[in-house]
Amino acid sequence: MVNQDAYHQLKKELDPKGVTLVAVSKTKPVAEIQDLYALGQRDFGENYVQELIEKHSQLPSDIHWHFIGHLQRNKVKYIAPFIHLIHGVDSYKLLEEINRQAEKQNRIIGCLLQIHIAEEETKFGLDATELEQIFTAIHANSGNLKNVQVKGLMGMASFTEDNEKVRQEFLALKNLFDKYSSLTILSMGMSSDYQIAIEEGSNMIRVGSLLFGERT
Ligand SMILES: *Cc1c(COP(=O)(O)O)cnc(C)c1O
Hints:
Strands 7-6-5-4-3-2-1-8 form an eight-stranded parallel beta sheet. The protein is 40% helix and 20% strand. By secondary structure, it is α/β, with parallel strands linked by helices. The protein starts with a helix and ends with a helix. Pyridoxal-5'-phosphate binds at residues 24, 26, 47, 68, 156, 190-192, 206-210.
């Protein structure tokens, strides 16, 4: 069940600050997405390609779909016709494949580069050096990457109760973001830490369980 009160409360916090809410609907049924859609929500985030394709085919075409999971190169073609923003790009090769598929669709696909800010080893993403290398490669090949637009950065903080640590991780990501003046989107913050993320400069948050309840 969608928590409508939580949604309205969240929008009241975000709208004056100009922060975009991506409602993370992974594992949740189409009917619950429709409930939020009816309240005016248009940005939804999904982690799994197959699930995203099925939901996309059943829901209104003015939804902005965000891919927030780890995207395999061989699956880009399935989402290229409609995806609004791909958050988890963490290699130049993936960017090239997104460009190739976007070109076939005659589209320009927005991308965020994922930065590893958390302590945990398991989380995907680039470090500052790898980010610099990707931008160097992009500039060297800009004539060949006409169908992707790198719009910003995305990151996930450590899963911890230590708010100060979370804050430092978000701050580190904000500092990286500020180094590249062409970037406009900073995607950081989830149900448990979005308030800290916004205080540290996030302008796009990805919230699931707060709106849809815990996932099983
Ligand atoms: C699942 C997920 C979220 C949402 O997490 P909640 O804690 O449910 O808000 C946000 N970002 C990413 C990358 C996710 O995989």
